[in-house]
Write a structure and sequence with these properties.
Blueprint: H1 10-16, E1 26-27, E2 38-41, H2 48-57, E3 61-62, H3 68-78, E4 82-88, E5 101-102, E6 127-131, E7 136-139, E8 147-152, H4 163-168, H5 182-187, E9 198-202, E10 219-221, E11 224-226, E12 236-240, E13 245-249, E14 259-267, E15 277-283, E16 291-297, E17 303-309, E18 313-318, E19 329-336, E20 341-346, E21 349-355, E22 365-368, E23 380-389, H6 395-405, E24 419-420, H7 422-430, E25 433-434, E26 449-450, H8 452-460, E27 463-464
Parallel strand pairs: 4-8
Antiparallel strand pairs: 1-2, 2-8, 3-8, 4-5, 4-6, 6-7, 9-23, 10-13, 11-12, 12-23, 13-22, 14-19, 14-23, 15-16, 15-22, 16-17, 17-18, 19-20, 20-21, 24-27, 25-26
Helix pairs in contact: 7-8
């Protein structure tokens, strides 16, 4: 089922009504062997043609069941009845089996007709329904009334996640409630601005200062500075696994459950005999048992992104074993949407998701590199470019962070013409001063300011790029 978006006229939308589609949509999750698409049923029995328009009015489509696995998943949604699916024959097709098609234009490569097969009653039967058993039956379009099975598969921002789910999670805005992200309607792409809603940022470029502009500087203990993932000296925080930590006060506590933690890490050791290695924790105080949310590298190399509250208990997104390997730099991003959908990304790829009904306890401090009590070990390795947001970033935005953190092979070649020359020198001089990190290539060392250091890098690299 390819990603596909249908648009209908305003007149049709009014005629069909947004209330025609149920709100109890379910996802066929990738981790369960699915495609990540969302499915629901229309609320009332109508003809196939009306059901088709109702689904398109919600910027979905009548479901296209293109594998036995998807067909069985859809059969559960049919309940004890039958529902329309997106299979049809164009006019003047020969009966019974000629030229069946999907409404999305996908190839017709799978079918599941219930015995004795298509057109078992004769006449023109040019649309299809599915039973709770998973078998299909063809019917005439008109007179017969069924609910429609709707599928959402559109991914207009090309981040590998269906837009409908991101809208439900509060990750993409949809102010007109038409199930198309606003950013796709406005510009055709949801590139995102990774400076928006950034509430704390620690580049770890020789210090633990906050580069977000809010002055939420970290208080380090026994932290030194080592090479980053690109091999640049003193550009990552090194934790010794004994007494290294960073404590931060003043990072806002989310009131709507929406936030993102993103950073690069390199573990020198994986886990310990208890719950694993702590990376980030929101705490009340060191020595106090309260801790939530948190990010751990588990003893088996998996990641655990969890929360706890006295009101609702605990929940955690746990990824597969060996997600993290010792000595390897990786980028981790943990997101939480306003509806509590929690996601974990590794190097820009979604690797786990779950749900936490609320943020957790309102704890005012962020602890980096150790647990709030001494039962659970210390982090040994390096961290870089830690960013905290007050919203859930999209997958595309997370990949943007990764690109920002990976300097070009010839960073002083600002113009990209293959050589460091007068064009690059002019770019530095014309951009002199403070800039948002990553917003101009003239900020060669990505420290948020175009200054003498960037000038020296251009002059020192003068000539053809290697």
């Amino acid at each position: 089922m390819k990603h596909w978006t249908a648009r209908v006229s305003v007149a049709t939308a009014v005629a069909m009504g947004s209330s025609a589609v149920a709100q109890d949509a379910v996802q066929w999750r990738v981790e369960d062997g699915g495609n990540g698409h969302w499915y629901s049923t229309t609320t009332a029995a109508v003809t196939w043609g009306v059901a088709k328009v109702q689904c398109e009015n919600q910027n979905g489509h009548l479901a296209t069941l293109t594998s036995s696995q998807e067909n069985q998943f859809a059969a559960v949604l049919a309940g004890n009845g039958t529902v329309w699916i997106g299979a049809f024959q164009p006019p003047n097709s020969c009966e019974p089996g000629c030229d069946w098609r999907w409404v999305t234009g996908e190839p017709w490569m799978f079918e599941a007709w219930a015995p004795p097969g298509a057109n078992d009653f004769g006449g023109i039967e040019d649309v299809a329904e599915t039973y709770a058993s998973g078998g299909w039956n063809d019917m005439p379009d008109g007179g017969w009334l069924r609910k429609g099975l709707i599928e959402w598969s559109a991914d207009c921002n090309a981040d590998g996640i269906v837009d409908y789910g991101q809208i439900r999670a509060g990750e993409l805005e949809d102010t007109n409630a038409n199930n198309i992200p606003d950013c796709c309607e406005d510009s055709g792409a949801c590139e995102g601005d990774v400076t928006v809603d950034l509430v704390a940022h620690y580049p770890f470029d020789g210090n633990c200062l906050d580069a977000s502009g809010f002055g939420r500087h970290g208080a380090p203990t026994a932290i030194t500075f080592d090479e980053d993932a690109a091999g640049r000296p003193a550009r990552a925080a090194a934790f010794n696994g004994i007494n290294s930590q960073m404590l931060v006060d003043g990072i806002p506590i989310p009131t709507n459950n929406a936030f993102t933690w993103a950073l690069w890490i390199r573990c020198e050791a994986i886990g310990n005999p208890s719950s694993g290695t702590p990376i980030l924790e929101r705490i009340e105080a060191v020595g106090n048992n309260l801790m939530t949310p948190s990010l751990f590298v588990r003893t088996n190399g998996g990641l655990g992104f969890g929360s706890y509250s006295f009101a609702s208990g605990g929940s955690s997104v746990e990824t597969a074993a060996k997600t993290i390997s010792a000595g390897v730099w990786v980028h981790i991003a943990c997101t939480s949407g306003v509806n509590g959908l929690r996601r974990v990304y590794l190097n820009g790829t979604l690797i786990g998701e779950g749900n936490s009904p609320e943020y957790g306890e309102a704890l005012g401090r962020l602890l980096v590199g150790r647990d709030r009590i001494d039962c659970c070990g210390m982090f040994r390795g390096s961290m870089d470019d830690l960013r905290i947001y007050s919203r859930a970033l999209t997958g595309l935005e997370i990949r943007t962070l990764i690109e920002i953190g990976q300097p070009p092979a010839c960073p002083a070649d600002i113009s990209g013409n293959g050589a460091v020359d007068a064009v690059d020198l002019a770019a530095v001089l014309s951009s002199w001063g403070n800039v948002p990190t990553g917003k101009t290539n003239a900020d060669v060392n990505r420290d948020g300011i175009v200054d003498a250091i960037d000038l020296a890098e251009v002059l020192g690299a003068w000539g053809v790029c290697p």
